[in-house]
Design a protein that fits this description.
By secondary structure, this protein is mainly alpha-helical. Helices cover 60% and strands 3% of the residues. The chain has helices at 2-32, 97-105, 124-136, 140-152, 161-173, 177-189, 194-206, 210-222, 226-238, 242-253, 259-275, 279-293, and strands spanning 85-88, 93-96.
């Protein structure tokens, strides 16, 4: 019976090949363009973790219909790269820098903001050992953090690209969106297989990494797939991705997308930027801005 089924499938495959591939592509796009999962919250302030710090301008207290297309929350480019969170291997928690800095400024410099574990005079070796313990229980965040230390030669570790890729790959296999994005960047920068780059960017985007989705939009735009690019940028901008919002503005200027088509995205972008803010985060951003200017 099974043999007859296999033979039947082989005989009819040429007739169904095109339809099957088309359906597979449709299912892939359904997964790729569906609403991303909710972002991780800081366990202390319960605000969503931003991908990058966004320094918002004051927005007019008007309905979105009256807000000019150019009058949206702007990103401080000098703050595009600083970390937005601190990882604590003692409890395996990632805490936004606003809460971390607020805790430290309250003279609690010797303990974890979440579990209050002692961190006084902790050596680099002890920090690495703590990360390894978390990795043993499949903590993807710990794998990602240790990979970064190997990349930049921190915590007394020697730079080791092979170890970076090994740890990032393990974290990605556990669904870590930042690890997928990181791997996509590494492969792209090394001139590797573009299909692998796309695979990692898509996996990251599906998991909610708006930076990866912005890059997918760029790739589609440069390939002439402008409609797909706009779809990516609208999703990314709705999650506060400044560069995606910029590309939508430029697409509007070129007549690729109408103002009506991006009004809802503009609303979501401004709301997201506002919701990411807190007094503690603003204070941290302000301290970084002062440091950068100096």
């Amino acid at each position: 019976m099974y043999a007859r089924q296999v033979n039947c499938q082989k005989n009819h495959w040429p007739k169904h090949k095109k339809e099957c591939k088309q359906r597979a592509a449709e299912l892939h796009d359904e997964a790729l363009f569906k609403d991303p999962p909710a972002k991780e919250d800081c366990p202390i302030c319960f605000l969503s973790m931003p991908l990058n710090f966004i320094h918002c301008i004051s927005l007019p207290p008007a309905t979105i219909a009256s807000v000019p297309i150019y009058d949206y929350a702007m990103a401080n480019e000098e703050l595009a790269n600083p970390e937005t969170r601190d990882y604590y291997e003692c409890c395996g928690k990632s805490i936004c820098n606003g809460c971390s800095e607020s805790f430290l400024s309250s003279h609690n410099i010797y303990m974890c903001p979440f579990c209050k574990a002692e961190r006084l005079f902790k050596t680099d070796e002890e920090s690495v050992e703590g990360l390894m313990k978390r990795i043993e229980v499949n903590d993807a965040d710990a794998m990602f953090e240790l990979a970064k230390y190997y990349k930049f030669g921190s915590l007394g570790l020697q730079q080791d690209q092979e170890r970076v890729i090994e740890l990032m790959t393990k974290a990605a296999e556990l669904g870590h969106c930042h690890a997928h994005f990181f791997l996509g960047n590494i492969i792209h920068d090394e001139g590797g297989d573009l299909k692998k780059v796309k695979f990692h960017y898509e996996a990251a985007a599906i998991a909610g990494h708006e930076g990866a989705r912005h890059n997918l939009g760029l790739d589609d735009y440069n390939s002439g797939k402008k409609e797909r690019a706009v779809r990516h940028w609208k999703i990314a901008a709705s999650a506060g991705e400044y560069h995606a919002m910029e590309h939508l503005r430029k697409s509007y200027e070129k007549g690729i997308v109408s103002r009506d088509a991006i009004n809802s995205t503009l609303t979501a972008y401004n709301n997201f930027c506002a919701e990411m803010r807190s007094k503690a985060r603003d204070a941290y951003i302000s301290s970084l801005s002062t440091f950068v200017r100096r």
